Structure prediction request, 80 residues.
Amino acid sequence: MGMVTWRRHHGHDLVATVVVRQPTAHTIAVWNESTGAVHQLPTVFQRLQSAKAAADAYLRSTFDHMCTLESCGDWMIWTG
Prediction:
């Protein structure tokens, strides 16, 4: 299985990312596209849903972001 990347936009310039490295190895990162600030968490998650939840929480705490239905999108597979 090749690597798969999931992305979720939070507002205009914040992005949460989950990279599926193996079926039970998921890593997360968050970034601010405007400033180029990238933060990675060294933890490896076994479940995709746990990794997505952790990425959202990490983004909220790192960039002091408040999620709303209007500002945050759905998790989507990123192909580019």
The mean pLDDT is 92. The first strand starts at residue 4 and ends at 10. The first helix runs from residue 48 to 63.
